[in-house]
Write a structure and sequence with these properties.
Elements (H helix, E strand, L loop, with lengths): L2 H4 L43 H14 L3 E5 L2 H9 L7 E5 L4 H10 L6 E5 L4 H6 L5 E7 L11 H10 L3 E5 L4 H4 L9 E5 L13 E5 L2 H14 L5 H12 L1 H21 L3 E5 L9 H7 L6 E6 L2 H10 L4 E2 L9 E3 L11 H7 L5 E5 L5 H13 L6
Parallel strand pairs: 2-3, 2-4, 4-5, 5-6, 10-11
Antiparallel strand pairs: 1-7, 6-7, 8-9, 9-12, 11-12
The chain binds pyridoxal-5'-phosphate.
Pyridoxal-5'-phosphate binds next to helix 3 and helix 4.
Length: about 375
């Protein structure tokens, strides 16, 4: 089956009991046992729920994995994956990752004795040089957020395997429709399903997938123990979102390409970061491991004032920290999604106040372009 078909048809996409084409929302916490000695498939919703199971099966099939896990948010999925490690373990982590993941790794996990080094994973020699005897994991995001830096997933996975490291990749930006890290040797994929998979800015959710039975056992224990599971109704919303992932994402990608090419020629735009653009660093690697550039782009303006002006003056994109939704969302990563990074690191990475991130929605490309044009060209007007 082609991937677009799989979005609609997976093993649990219909209700086996009734033939309902939409999975029922099993709004029940307790599942009664037949008798004391006959526990059923489900007992208690924290440890398992049929609606959640359907979503977990869907994401496992889409990512080419065997075991899926649904969590209350992307951060809950990431927290569970990071909880695989123990005190004294050392982790290597991509430098420009999602701000919340950075915060977890810089401020929370070190309290429990996890050691973390942030590295430029676009350069695997640098990564190899940082591996110590205590290094146990490699955490990646590609394309990175917000500068769309590309890490070679297959090579990173091979390097990690040589040293016995568990690899985790955040696949939120690409979704399994465009990129499947498990097929390239990555051990665990995590998602903020809040973004493209849900797609409508109305549901916070996270997912994790693996092929490995041992890791799946650990993740099952963590999901049940941390208790950060996704509620049945939210599972249903993500299942519904997944059905339209292809049409949304391909349309958003088409518009993102048009806008990226147009922005690149604009005299007030210093740089455009979009993997779909000719000349984007790592573009060849990206297209070896992914089937498109996605729907998010960032661009650097001539001055920070102009970046503020553009964000304040656009009429269609909403100002917000999220992405992957039907509505376009514009943000200033330096103070919004990446506000929790130390100032020095932000400067070093280029996440400065002249950088704007745009998550392209389903509005017409002409309207978005005209809107950006008026926002760039109206020197004084402020919303
Ligand atoms: C939003 C996001 C997260 C966090 O997900 P939540 O659902 O907000 O908890 C993690 N990684 C990436 C790349 C994200 O964009």
């Amino acid at each position: 089956m082609q991937r677009g078909t799989r979005l609609i048809h997976h093993r649990l996409s219909m209700d086996a009991a009734t033939g309902g084409v939409s999975v029922p929302i099993h709004q029940s916490v307790v599942f009664a046992q037949e008798s004391l000695d006959q526990p059923g498939e489900y007992e208690y919703t924290r440890s398992g729920n049929p609606t959640r199971r359907a979503l977990e099966e869907a994401i496992a099939e889409l990512e080419g994995g065997n075991y899926g896990f649904a969590f209350a948010s992307g951060m809950a999925a990431i927290t569970a994956a990071l909880s695989l490690f123990s005190s004294g373990d050392h982790l290597l982590v991509s430098r420009d990752i999602y701000g919340g993941t950075y915060r977890a790794l810089a401020e929370v996990f070190p309290r429990f004795g996890l050691e973390v080094t942030f590295v430029d994973t676009t350069n695997l020699e640098t990564v190899a040089a940082q591996i110590r005897p205590s290094t146990k994991g490699l955490y990646l995001e590609t394309p990175s957020n917000p500068l769309m830096k590309i890490t070679d997933l297959a090579r990173a996975a091979a390097l990690a395997r040589e040293h016995g490291l568990i690899t985790i990749a955040d696949n939120t930006f690409m979704t399994p429709y465009l990129q499947r890290p498990l097929e390239l040797g990555i051990d665990i994929v995590v998602h903020s399903a809040t973004k493209y998979l849900g797609g409508h800015s109305d549901c916070l959710a996270g997912l994790a997938v693996t092929r490995d039975a041992g890791l799946a056992r650990e993740l099952t224990l963590l999901q049940n123990t941390l208790g950060t599971v996704l509620a049945p109704h939210e599972c249903w919303l993500i299942l519904r979102g997944i059905k339209t992932l292809k049409v949304r994402l391909l349309q958003q990608q088409r518009t993102a390409t048009v806008l990226a090419e147009w922005l690149r020629k604009h005299p007030q735009v210093k740089a455009v970061y979009y993997p779909g653009l000719e000349g984007h660093p790592g573009r060849e690697t990206h297209f070896r491991q992914a089937d498109g550039g996605g729907g998010v782009l960032s661009f650097r303006l001539a001055t920070p004032e102009l970046a503020r002006q553009v964000i304040n003056n656009v009429r269609l994109p909403v100002i917000g920290s999220s992405l992957g939704a039907v509505e376009s969302i514009i943000s200033l990563p330096a103070t919004m999604s990446h506000g929790s990074l130390p100032g020095e690191l932000k400067r070093e990475l280029g996440i400065t106040p002249d950088l704007v991130r745009l998550s392209v929605g389903l509005e017409e490309a002409e309207d978005l372009q005209a809107d950006l044009e008026q926002a760039l060209d109206s020197p004084r007007g402020h919303r």
